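Example record for the data management plan.
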Amino acid sequence: MTEKIANKEQSGLSRVVGWVLTALCIAVSLFHIFVAVNSSISVVQQRVIHVMALLMVFFLMQGQKGLEKKKWTAWIDLALFVVSVALAIYFIRGTELSALSRRGVQGISQMDMIYGIILIAVILLVGWRSVGPALTVLSIIFLLYAYFGRSMPDLIAHKGYTIKKITDYVAWTSESIFGSCIGASASFVALYIIFGELLNAFGAGQFFIDIAYALTGRMKGGPAEASVVSSALMGSINGSAVANVVTTGTFTIPLMKKVGYAPEFAGAVEAVASTGGQLLPPVMGAAAFVMADLTGIPYSTIIIAAIVPGLLYYLSLGIAVYLQACKKGLGSEEAERLPVVREVLKNGWYHLIPIVVLIVALLGFGYSPNTSAIYAIICLLAIGLINVIRKEKRLPIKEIGDSLIAAAKTTVSVAIACACAGIVIGIVSMTGIGVKFTTIVFRVSGGNLLGMLMMIMIACIIMGMGLPSTAAYIIAASIGAPALIQAGIPLIAAHLFVFYFAIMSFITPPVAMSAYAAAGIAKCKSGKTGVLAFLLGLAGFVIPFFYAYRPALLLVDANVAEAIWCVVVATLATVNMAVVVIGYLKKPLNVALRILLAAAAFLLVYPVVWGDVVGIAVSVLVYLYSFLGGKKQAAAA
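Corresponding structural encoding:
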């Protein structure tokens, strides 16, 4: 009897926690919309409220789950929710103008230090639980480096800092936890997550999948091409490669397996396609907003620079998928099972309007990312309202409410990742390790640009493994970009270089998170799927080198003729990589021919006349040989 009463009380408490969580999530999402159109709250307090509110959301989410499963840990989460409320009150009061002035003169008090340490500990804990241990461990390593600096080897040693000084810099300045990373999360990222959730709630996600399937289903290996297209469409809005795999992969991977692709290949295609969505404008997994904030480069310039490389990435993957279908003799999907393009557009063309509004606002009128997002959200709400009223004779209150709740919950992992990455950036700035890394890179590479690029590529991939895309870029940029800039590479090219390789960590073994998520859906070996994803994504490992050697590919401040030529040679190089990976072009290619094509691709990266001539000549000769040989084989057959 006593147990029944206890269970009933626990169930009642779970409902109460759920109501509080729902109200808090809606309030958090509305807060981000409010601060996008109103500047009455200071920037520092916006960031403080952003972090503290999302910490509360996280602990309420975990507490509710624990209560539902009758776990004793639920009480710890609810206690940490109370701690988060106390932190919020203290930090909001501590970032008022009078408090900021006092701290600027006197430094932080003993109580400030205690609350600062608690905040750092809570953020590290939530980082571990929400985005995995890698980012938390990395943050702890940097904090220890700040404290034990004088005991480090001479190459990376510094004077060392006290706990009070570290806490002051990390928790109470706008250079670390509450720095530009959280600033981008609070002002841009949260809005675009709301936009993405609203798109899904009103059916845009299914529309993207249907239109991709309708356009590509009749091709050889059509479902795989549909995976490429739908993942590009969804991933350019979605902020997570893994989430994109789970969203589109549940539909595309079974279809790829059905037409004859091996499970590992199907999983790899989905992993590469979903990861590439973060490289394709307009949203680019939210990292583009952080890039704009870190570099001062207009967001519109960044997405213009990223458009050609993003399309080349998908071109290479699309060709690889098609060649694999030809190699294995796979057919297309049955016509009667395919949606008709005309019908899909007729029934859902309005889903494209908010995206068009977003792009026009960003590029056509040059509005800021948050202003553009507000216009797109308003447009999306108007269309959704009209559509639901017309079809179902009701107001879309549930769709809007669910979107606001889901957006707040989704923003937690992004914001905490940015906060943890902010700790790393703060320590890098505080200790000067970024400058030391630049010195190390120049010393080890001997000033050779290729050697330097290879070192930074490996560092970015390693540092990005296991991290959310935004955090991976932030940390890679803080360490790798300064060395590239000092080597004479343009600012935007340097940041896109480290960004690409931070993102490539999602399909690079041994921690290929996107590939492992896809392997789970495909029900196949994760290790083999990771290797195949790495191979299919090889174009993504070649394209960034064009940024360093041929920055005209970015279309920013470039001569028109030079930009066109760069696009031509980069296209040929990425197509070559697709052919090399599959090893088929009208007929199977032997190892020697594949090596020749790979060498031609790498030659085309360097901006020298003889390299272009040899690279193009070799490519043309191999293609001619393969096509003519393929025709002879077909005739003989």
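Summary line stored alongside the record: The longest helix spans residues 2-37.
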